[in-house]
Automatic annotation (TrEMBL):
This is FNDC9 protein. Keywords: Membrane, Transmembrane, Transmembrane helix. InterPro entries: FN3_dom, FN3_sf, Ig-like_fold. SUPFAM superfamilies: Fibronectin type III (SSF49265). It comes from the Eukaryota. The chain crosses the membrane at residues 110-136. CDD domains: FN3 (cd00063). The gene is Fndc9_0. The keyword Transmembrane helix applies.
Length: 211
């Protein structure tokens, strides 16, 4: 068939073949396999690891995702026919391309950066939640303590007020008793005003006895 493999790199290769007038099928089968050993492998379709299908209107194809520094065999046949030796070519891939290596490193670095960013965001969210929860709990404890203190202050003030009132009443009662003892007639002001002689009689009798 005159198959040629060109533009070989560490990961890609271009296979070219002449159009075959005898191939009346709808597509070409491009089969390839790494580490080919003609002594152990046959040219049957099941012996090939990869297979691509290309329309018959095309006469070239770019094979990708090859392994660097690897020996490959590539065959082109009409549709699903088994290849023969004159329909195959053996080639070796080159070292990894610097550009693809740098792209791989960039992709790896980008993946690591994205993963680290996600982990940092998760850790930051957990820490923020913990801080907010702690602040809320402390604030609630302060409010409870403030309410407890307010209730205690109110109770003490009320107790003091009751004690002060009771003490005032006791003093007033004691004063009234003292007044009653000293001035028996001064129990009621109205009585003194209406009947002043009620208090004068004992005084008069006392004065007469002294005379």
């Amino acid at each position: 068939m005159g198959i040629t493999v060109q533009n070989i790199t560490g990961n890609t290769a271009v296979v070219i073949w002449p159009k075959m007038a005898s191939c009346v099928d709808s597509f070409y089968s491009i089969m390839y396999h790494p580490n080919w050993n003609s002594m152990l492998s046959s040219y049957s379709r099941k012996s090939f690891q990869k297979e691509e299908r290309v329309p018959t209107s095309r006469s070239s194809f770019v094979v990708e995702n090859l392994t660097p520094l690897t020996r490959y065999i590539m065959c082109v046949t009409c549709q699903s026919a088994n290849p023969s030796s004159d329909q195959c070519r053996v080639f070796n891939t080159l070292e990894r391309d610097p550009a693809s290596a740098s792209n791989t490193k960039k992709e790896l670095a980008l993946g690591i950066w994205l993963t680290s960013s996600v982990l940092l965001l998760i850790i930051a969210a957990i820490l923020l939640y913990g801080c907010l929860h702690l602040l809320y709990r402390r604030r609630r404890e302060r409010l409870q303590e403030h309410n407890r203190t307010s209730k205690q202050d109110y109770g003490e003030a009320w107790t003091k007020s009751v004690a002060y009132t009771s003490e005032g009443f006791s003093r007033q009662r004691q004063q009234m008793q003292d007044t009653e003892e000293k001035h028996p007639c001064g129990i009621q002001l109205a009585t003194i005003i209406e009947n002043p002689s009620a208090c004068n009689e004992p005084l008069m009798s006392t004065s007469k006895s002294q005379e």
